[in-house]
Write a structure and sequence with these properties.
mainly alpha
């Protein structure tokens, strides 16, 4: 179970403490449990949604979104902000883009991007609450974390050394493929046609963003992985409001 606890510590703000520094092989295997962490997030959000029944929809959505952000500790939002700054400020240059992503400061484009993403998530949550389509609260976090697994399975990691390189180098690839298949089947079993539509949208977002990473950087970084999660989640949530 150590790989699961590694995944939970890395992806969440929950009070998880490991006994020591994990071996690289355990770090790689932890990627297999990323969708499980997404399922845990989804279950907690779904439970909170049930507890908030009868609450005015705007307040209901605001509380759900706050819980969503707090669960991950803003990890992926930070990656989105850094990626947004780098993509604009990098002017198409690989090295400049990578350098900007290492800068902890956020520029105006990062702030605007975060505001727009959170606003769209909030509006989508309001729509889903009013439509009673809250199974999306379970499906979307799973798809977001499964996308991380898919990214590390299919895309080179461009920063040598560090946690990301250990994850990429020691990921059990065949097992990773089976985890992704299981996630897809599980989502369809839980939510039927709506989940099939969500999978199609998520796959299209994944392919498009991965192609952008390859063209600009030749692979992915931790920041672009975080950006992938946030963009994929918001697009699928917005799409769910139309199904």
């Amino acid at each position: 179970m150590l790989p699961f606890w590694i995944a939970l510590q890395f992806l969440s703000s929950l009070p998880v403490r490991l006994p020591g520094m994990p071996e690289p092989e355990q770090l790689g295997r932890s990627l297999l449990f990323y969708p499980v962490v997404g399922l845990l997030f989804g279950g907690l959000l779904w439970l909170l949604d049930a507890l908030l029944l009868g609450t005015p929809s705007l307040l209901h959505a605001a509380l759900l979104l706050t819980a969503w952000v707090l669960l991950s500790g803003g990890l992926h939002l930070d990656g989105l902000a850094d990626s947004a700054d780098a993509w604009l400020g990098g002017f198409g240059d690989r090295e400049r883009t990578l350098l900007i992503m290492k800068d902890p400061r956020s520029g105006p484009i990062a702030v605007v991007t975060l505001v727009l993403v959170l606003l769209l998530k909030f509006a989508a949550l309001v729509a889903l609450i009013e439509q009673g389509q809250t199974l999306a609260l379970i499906i979307v976090p799973v798809l977001g974390r499964a996308a991380l697994l898919g990214l590390f399975l299919t895309t080179p990691y461009v920063r040598a050394g560090g946690l990301g390189q250990a994850l990429a180098d020691h990921l059990p690839r065949r097992a990773g493929g089976w985890v992704l298949v299981t996630c897809a089947l599980g989502c369809v079993l839980v939510a039927g046609w709506a989940a099939a539509s969500a999978l199609a949208v998520a796959f299209a977002v994944f392919v498009g963003l991965r192609r952008m990473m390859l063209r600009r950087l030749g692979g992915c970084t931790g920041d672009t992985a975080g950006a992938l999660v946030e963009v994929l989640e918001v697009v699928v949530l917005v799409g769910a409001g139309f199904w």
